[in-house]
Each structure stands twice: as structure tokens, then as C-alpha cells.
Amino acid sequence: MSDDDAISSIPPPVGGFRLRWDVFLSFRGEDTRETITKNLYEALKRRGVRVFLDNDGLDRGDDIGPTLLEAIEDSAAAIIVLSPRYADSRWCLQELEKICDGGRRLILPLFYNVDPSHVRRQKGPLEEQFRIHEKVFDNATVSGWRNALAKVGGKAGYVFNTSRYIYI
Asked: TIR domain spans which residues (predicted)?
């Protein structure tokens, strides 16, 4: 599937009204904000896609948590940039769970330096992150996060491994 195919396959809004955002970007800022997420955001914007990115989509004075969850609800699609430390952030996991609970929303995972099977099974770097979450959060919360990761890890997406590329 080409980038243009992915963008054109965004489902129409439910009930015919126009959603505020075409795409919600979910990512671990420390891992990807200045690299792949920045490039992806700029490429989508150049194509006229209305992209929610936390820095640009939040108005000053907004409460971050509720505003992010509202932006997810008001987005036709979500691109999830899954990186080695994505599951380290409870915010990322809460976003992901909300995205997966959304019904008809297109979900497109981008596996950035992580193996999709590790995401699906919470292995590799995600395994230790979940051990820590299990000590802090209740079973229902952690189970919801695990289910969301398993769902996204089971979707066809794009795998991007920077160790395969040589930068000049």
C-alpha cells in the first residue's frame, strides 16, 4: 500500500459530520519526536492532512489528558509510532487503549526499531516495562493496555528499523 492509498482509505466520519482531525499521531516523544514522528507529521501536513500532534493540537491552557482523549475521538484515523520505550509511558498506553476502543477508526501502526511480534506479545523491551506497570497499576488497567498492544501488534503496518539504513 502506498502512502497515498493509506491516506485515501481513511473512513468517512460517522453520521456525515466532519471530524476535526484526519489523523491522530501517537508516539513516545523521547524516542521519536525529533526523528520519524517529525518527518511523518511534516509529510502529512504537506499533503493537506489535518494531523493532531500534541505540540500543535493543544491550545495553551488546555488540560493535556482530556484534550488528548478528545482529539482521539475527533480523529478519523490514528498512526501509532511504536518505539522501544513506547510502553514505558502510561500516557502512550492510555492513548493507545482509547484509540483501540474507537470502533471504525483506521489504525495504522509504524513499528520503529521494534519487532511487531514483540509488540503483540509484549516481549523484548516491552516486557520489563510491563513488569513495572504491574507493580504500580491495577490488573484491569494493565490488562487493557496489554490488549491494546496485542491488537495493534497484530495489524499490518510499516516496519522501520534504523539499524538497516546507512546515513551519509
From this structure: 19-153
CATH superfamily, domain 3-162, is Toll/interleukin-1 receptor homology (TIR) domain (3.40.50.10140)
- Averaged pLDDT, 60-89: 83
At how many degrees (to 10) do helices 64-73 and 90-100 cross? Answer: 30
CA–CA separation, 23 and 125 (whole Å): 27
Burial of 155 (0-12, 13-18, 19+ CB in 10 A): middle
pLDDT tens for each residue of 94-125? 999 999 996 678 999 999 999 999 999 999 88
Q: What's the pLDDT band for 8 if we cut at 50, 70, 90? A: very low
Burial track 88-108 (b if 16+ CB lie within 10 A, e otherwise): bbeebbbbbbbbbebeebbbb
Structural domain boundaries of the chain? 3-162
Q: Which of 42, 95, 127, 134 is catalytic?
A: 95
What integer pLDDT is reported at residue 113 of this predicted model? 93
Report the predicted TM-score, pTM, of the whole model to 2 decimal places: 0.81
